[in-house]
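forwarding from the other thread:

> can someone predict this with zinc ion?

sure thing
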Amino acid sequence: MDLIIRNARLSDRPAGHPPVDIGIEDGRIAAIGPGLAAQGEVYDAGGRLACPGLVETHIHIDKSRIIDRCAPQPRATYSPVKGVAPIKDTMTLEDTYRRAERTLQECVLHGATRMRTQVEVDPGIGMRGFEAVEALARDYKWAIDVEMCVFPQEGLTNYPGTDELLVESLKRGARVLGGAPRYDTDGPAQIDRIFELAREYDTDIDIHLDVGPTPDGMYVHQVRELTEKYKRGGRVVVGHMAKLSLLPPDEVAKIARQLADAGVAVTVLPATDLFLMGRNRDHSVVRGVADANHLCAHGVNCSLSSNNILNPATPLGDCSLVRMANLYANVVQLDRPEQLTECFDMLTWRSAKLLNLKDYGFKVGNPGDVVVLNAESPKQAIAEIAQPLAAFKNGKRTVRWDAPVLLRP
Ligand SMILES: [Zn+2]
């Protein structure tokens, strides 16, 4: 065996399960069990929690780290798209690569081993974002698997040339297609076109959906109907769904059951929704974060993710998914151990399922991806924002954080 990670509490085993060893050979998990005897490199997890890597299901690395370039806007009419669109000409391929690289590095340092990143494609940015992220994904394959979701941020039906660029990016290998109907003059037409393209190029779908000041006119019903009509269940994700936070629980439960039946998953993006929602009010500002645990309870698969880092949609951030889940737990007011454990699931196996990753998890034969966190349980990791201390990708160590030590006099 090339590597043995000893004394690890596996995140996908029941609470109280004793620590075990993970043996990795040729980049893949070769054995899991107590007291594995073998030669090779050893890492002692010391009874800490290990997961098969955190999964960032929704982030925009191509437009991260631009907040300092964007003009200030009035609070009430604030629009992230209006902030980014005028500076797209500054986002060259090299500039995009460099910014995205710093963000990708931070994601890896905070325990991510898999990622779906949204990539904007339109005449303003051309294929520069696509090409920068494509190159970056290749260059960082040693640390993280990056999948691109191409999408029209500034509208599809109202922005001539965007459709052609989306088609080009699908022909050049993008496996996921996104959307943002809120920023289209004809949102329903955009959604129809996304489903049409997804069928033609056989891609999964991951759409930004239902952010706004009232729960009226939710697009999610159209997305669900098209998912059912075209039998795309299990391959459709809707991100944000902030409007669900404006509905009473029984109405949310009804929508959740419909989404679960159709096979539509939900990604909640707490930092962005907290930052953008409630701009129509100057007091009693709504939180605007959908309760993913409530959705899970009604059968929907959910993930929690970062969305943006240091740009007008999300001016703050550190790429820590564990911190994001802690923020979310505060906002939706969770305190029970099983609820916090479920938050950890929404960074790990639930996220992997949402991305249709077939080789994720602590199972013999799967990639030797292991992240050790400075906690003993998933619940503790979320409650205390546990730092990842070590990460391994395909059996090779990629991250080292030393646990802090108190120096007594
Ligand atoms: Zn997004």
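The pocket of zinc ion is lined by residues 58, 60, 118, 208, 239, 307 (CB under 6 Å). thats all i got for now
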